Amino acid sequence: MWVAGAVWAKAPVPGVSPDIGSVALAELPKEAQTTERLIRSGGPFPYPKDGVVFGNRERVLPAEPRGYYREYTVKTPGARDRGGRRMVCGGRQPTRPAACYYTDDHYSSFRRIVE
Q1: Which position among 27, 31, 58, 106 bears the catalytic label?
Q2: Hey, where are the domains in the chain?
Q3: Fold classification of 26-114 (topology level)
Q4: pTM of the model
Q5: Of the four listed, 75, 80, 99, 111, which is most buried by Cβ atoms within 10 Å?
């Protein structure tokens, strides 16, 4: 889903770890697409921890000041807990992120979401 004013990567971004690939939003699971829509609409989110600051302790994402990144749960069908799928978005306005990343292995790897 394209939202006017959204900024998505179209090419490799300087400062981004070479381990970060990219993925089109349309190629992600439908649950990730739902999470992306919730982020842009400001919620409501299904999990209390959605929207909390992501500390980037793994240092896989580009270095940014604390508070830049926020994490959101991507539902995992059949999981009894939050599962390992997340979307991490960064920017000044949570509903208009400058970049979003998807992980399906609980932060071990990320792919930048592109158009």
Answers
A1: 106
A2: 26-114
A3: Nuclear Transport Factor 2; Chain: A, (3.10.450)
A4: 0.83
A5: 99
